[in-house]
Amino acid sequence: MSQKIFTTTNTALSCAVLFFSTLPVAASVAAQSNTSADVGTQEMIVTANRLAQPLGETLAASTVFTLDDIEAAQAQSLLDLLAGAPGIQMARTGGQGTQTSLFMRGTNSDHTLILIDGVKANTASEGFARLENIPVAQIARIEVVRGPQSSLYGADAIGGVIQIFTKQAAHSDAEPGLSGNLSAAAGTESTYNGSGGFNLRGTHTSLALNVSHQQTDGIRPIHTPRPSARRSAYDNDAANLSIAHQFGNGAALHGAYSLTDSQLEYDGGINNGEGRTAHLGLRLPVTNSWQSDLQVSRFIDESVNDSTFASLSRTERDAINWQNHVQLGDNNSIVVGADFESEELLYEMSGATQTDTTRDNGAAFAVLDTQFALSNSSVDTTLSLRYDDNEQFGGKTTGKAAIGTDLGDNMQLWTSYSTAYKAPSLVELYVDFPGFFFFGNPDLQPETSRNVEIGLEGNHAGARWSINAFRNEIKNLITTDASFSSLTNVDRATINGAELAVSGSWLGWDANAALTLLDHENSDTGQELLRRPNEILSAGISREFNKLDVGLTWLLRGTQKDVDPVTFGTSSVAGNAVFDLAFSYQLLNDFGLQLKIGNLFDKDYQVVDGYNTYGRTALLTTRYIF
């Protein structure tokens, strides 16, 4: 396979031409993703280096979704919200609530670490988070950092990190009082959504409660080999209670408890999901230049499948995170800390215990940020190092080195080299599925990766743009074996890629565009990795007309390899392009209406071979703010 990432296919070339043809318009547009938030502002991000810093100064490819971005998107799921972001490919096996996979920069679905308010949400079973059960109505902000981040967060971050911030109690310095919101929605496929929340702010203490409900009849998920006899109806109920307190010496205490209950119906059974997350954190200013943070958390995920092959999967994880940020003068800082987690997996199949296993992991890490002048240019460097001691696989050291320089004319050039690793999940190691003739492999070894990247970004005439190119070599990649009966380590997989993004504002119009190009190969077979299109192009344009906002988005996916649901051989899924149209109308200062039309032209397409996707949909939402 060619390693020239810009010449993978004729489609890639066409996408690139189309992308750059949008620049005269999109070059001054405010987007709803990474380049959007910091056009003309100092939007901050904490996930890129485990400390708050301006988004435009990070030496990592990053995307931020603010609350305004999330509400404007009118997304019903994380798939709808994240699908157009640079470097992200998403796949779902049917409608709302069905299994949703996220491939960051072409890596596996369990190579992206998902954090919810700083708490790891990847399960100990499959190794990925249950994205389909995270309600958008509970989310206040999302930060996406692309590229390996094991030197900051340990395992599970070969592809990158996504941190989800839920709606929490306001900071104590906010004006005392009561505020809140209510929303109700109805749409096609008998979809009904509702959410509400309040934030009670005192002089030093704040309390917040947010609740949400989703229900839909869904669609018939399976297309081949035998069409589904019933729709995959889905229900989701969620709640989040949080508290924040500011002490007189500048210390702060924060805590939250969230729960999610879901139910998915499908041919042959029902899947019930339950999620519980709790955390309590203390921020202490030790000196004027030293801040210490301590957080304890507990995460529970349970999935009960009531079908012919009934199963129970339950993850319990307790964690302690201690982090210290020390400012060394005006231009240097260091972050040092330690993490410890203990996780337990209980997995039962047809009433028999497959595994009841615990695994501990302890780690220490350090991040050094420096800035200095060189030949009239500002130079930034980031060095990070982490050592993990895994109870099962022993010690592992990962690191990252990044350097960037100011080129003048509002442009920055940076490059980085990083290493990462991923331990096999407990299901991959020990759980057998005899009813499906699929078996775990206790001989699996951890996956490791080396990534080199270069980025160029700028801000001109109110528009922000970025170009990133990377090469990620993954050794011992875990994938299905040739007989599709177990898992095995692949000698090596290579992923080359490029990402281009632009956003800004022009003559009252807001617009954004993002292009992702990938060239990936399993070195053992010479074949492309599955369910990763080589080209993804997204674009959006919107405008405010007095009280009416109108937005149009477009998502194009290239052809991808998959598994044929009948023969289990390699198949090909055709590329597709889908348009969405959104309206928002502010009737009163505190009351508004929204209308989202998904798949505007009723495109018939597939993302996963053998599984249906939604046709044209509509959702009408009312919002009240107090």
TrEMBL record:
It is found in: Cell outer membrane. The keyword Cell membrane does not apply. Residues 190-600 form the TonB-dependent receptor-like beta-barrel domain. Pfam families: Plug, TonB_dep_Rec_b-barrel. This is TonB-dependent vitamin B12 receptor. Residues 57-161 form the TonB-dependent receptor plug domain. It comes from marine sediment metagenome. PROSITE patterns: PROKAR_LIPOPROTEIN, TONB_DEPENDENT_REC_3.
